[in-house]
Amino acid sequence: MTEDGHKNEAKRFFTHMLVRRATKTPNVTASAQLPTLRRRALMPLLEIKNLQLDFVTAEGRARAVDGVSLSLEAGETVCLVGESGCGKSVTAQSIARLVPTPPADYVGGEILLNGRDVLKMSPKELQSIRGGVVSYIFQEPGASLNPVFRVGAQIKEALKLHQPHKATDAEVIRLLKLVGIPAPQARLKNYPYEMSGGMLQRVMIAMALASEPKLLVADEPTTALDVTIQAQIMDLLRDLKQRLGMAILLITHNLGIVGDIADRVAVMYAGQIVELAPARDLLKRPRHPYTQALMASVPRLSGDAKRLNAIPGNVPRIGQFPPGCRFAPRCARAIESCKATAPALLEVESRRWVRCPLWNDARASSAAVAEAERR
Ligand SMILES: Nc1ncnc2c1ncn2[C@@H]1O[C@H](COP(=O)(O)OP(=O)(O)OP(=O)(O)O)[C@@H](O)[C@H]1O
Ligand code: SF4
Ligand SMILES: [Mg+2]
Q: What pTM was computed for the model?
């Protein structure tokens, strides 16, 4: 199957799979003396620890996710940004172990969802968290909806799987209203082809919300939409986050849209996180040269940009990462040692992690700050 085929299969699978609320399997460990509920209240909703994932293809074995660690608190919004091919989707799909194995091979790490390791779950346990704890929305709503069924029936189907006692027209209408679809009573009889891309994405969000997930993973949910509709969908996500209190992992290659919604931002490059920081700090003072370059490539709202500063070159393909710093061939600040030594991700300030020993280069930082302030 092609890579696109796998992605589509994952989307379809997610839309139609059997899901239930997570089973409350007691996670009894010797160290865990606290009552389960209190322990859960103290732990992050999601904790990815040193995740390593390879793809094994005819060309050989290549690492696509290399030591990614990331956590999300309940109700928190984290944006995962980076150019195409950096490993954002593979990391996000791993949270519910949606990446098909093979060709994927989980080589190491842990993905703790409510304290339980997704990588060690049985197929039955996985079914219970998919949709029950974590739901996904993807870039192409059309690919996830069945063209021959009315949207109301499809949302009701999702309710039957997740919350059977709520599988009623009234609940479908409530969900359609929640995601801002006008005249929901009439709309539930529409087929997908009768709706615009923006409306379809709202339907997908309604289906994802049917299970009342604790974590919504939105993988480039606005990329296929025009700019006005993009803004509306982002407003909707922000509103839902406040009203429902769920955590959101929002994947985008556009740093320009994260300021309004993200609590924290993780920047990925070539399978690794290169910067992780509270959104406000990162946008005001990006520390990693890649983050700085990404920000310089975002069009300014003021519209006075002479030209966009595109990052030269491309993200290296998996299996072809250069030795030393993976960004070195494209980094304007690279020095000789960058090509030899792979930098570690270090906490350089409180809650601020950067994978570059030159993160505090005053000249480059002040140029980036000046650029950020001009926006
Ligand atoms: N099924 C697969 N088989 C082999 N390689 C794959 C497969 N799926 C993804 N990859 C590779 O893994 C790397 C990370 O892919 P991923 O889809 O996570 O990137 P991304 O950051 O989400 O990019 P985009 O912004 O284009 O969606 C890419 O190099 C991609 O080619
Ligand atoms: S380690 Fe060197 S090449 Fe890598 S981002 Fe920092 S300055 Fe650039
Ligand atoms: Mg992707």
A: 0.84
Nearest to 374 by CA among 305, 290, 297, 279: 305
Same domain (yes/no): 239, 319: no
Per-residue tokens: 295: 């920000």
Q: What is the CATH number of the domain that holds 203?
A: 3.40.50.300
Closest Cα partner for 359 from 339, 340, 336, 331? Answer: 331
List the beta bridge partners of residue 249: 78, 217
Contact status, residue 115 vs residue 49, Cβ threshold 8 Å: no
Q: Which domain holds residue 132?
A: 3-22+41-262
Co-location of 197 and 330 in the same domain: no
Look at ligand 1, atom 17, and give the residue with the nearest C-alpha: 89
Q: Is 57 a pocket residue for ligand 1 (Cβ < 6 Å)?
A: yes
Residues in the chain: 375
The distance of Cα 114 from the centroid of its chain, to the nearest Å, equals 17
Query: Could you tell me if 204 and 303 lie in one domain?
Result: no
pLDDT in tens, the chain (375 residues): 444 444 444 444 333 332 222 222 223 333 344 455 555 556 899 999 999 999 998 889 999 999 999 999 999 999 999 999 999 999 999 999 999 989 999 999 999 998 899 999 999 888 888 877 898 988 877 777 889 999 999 999 888 887 888 889 999 998 888 888 889 998 989 999 998 888 888 888 888 888 888 999 999 888 777 777 778 888 888 888 888 889 999 998 878 788 888 999 999 999 999 999 999 999 999 999 999 999 888 766 555 555 567 888 889 999 999 999 999 999 999 999 999 999 999 999 989 999 999 988 755 555 555 555 554
Domain match, 201 and 312 both: no
Check if 55 has its Cβ closer than 6 Å to any atom of ligand 1: yes
Residues 205 and 298 in one domain: no
Q: 87: Cβ below 6 Å to ligand 1? A: yes
